[in-house]
Design brief:
By secondary structure, the chain is α+β, with helices and mostly antiparallel strands. Helices cover 43% and strands 15% of the residues. It has 3 helices and 2 strands, in the order H-E-H-E-H. Strands 1-2 form a two-stranded parallel ribbon. The longest helix has 13 residues. The chain is globular and about 35 Å long. It starts with 5 loop residues before the first helix and ends in a 17-residue tail after the last helix.
Length: 82
């Protein structure tokens, strides 16, 4: 989660560079597309899912689509209220 920016993006790129197929979760499609491009240009593999971690239905829908065994789970999405 939170794979489109900052720490989440860095973790996803790091894992992909070391041979993991990563599943990128975040809200922003354009930002996810940039991360996907970066990973694929470096020879890595990834799947993109647009998910809003603030919305339970969005999370549940993403889990239904998940058809891979998960070896590493990084819960990185941060939510703050102002």
């Amino acid at each position: 989660t939170g794979a489109s920016r900052g720490i989440g993006r860095a973790i996803a790129c790091h894992l992909a560079a070391r041979g993991s197929h990563v599943i990128l979760h975040a809200r922003n499609k354009a930002d996810l597309a940039l991360v996907r491009s970066q990973i694929e240009e470096a020879g890595g593999g990834c799947t993109v899912q647009t998910v809003d971690a603030r919305n339970e239905e969005s999370i549940n829908n993403s889990l239904v689509e998940l058809d891979r065994q998960v070896d590493i789970l990084v819960n990185n999405a941060g939510i703050y209220k102002t």
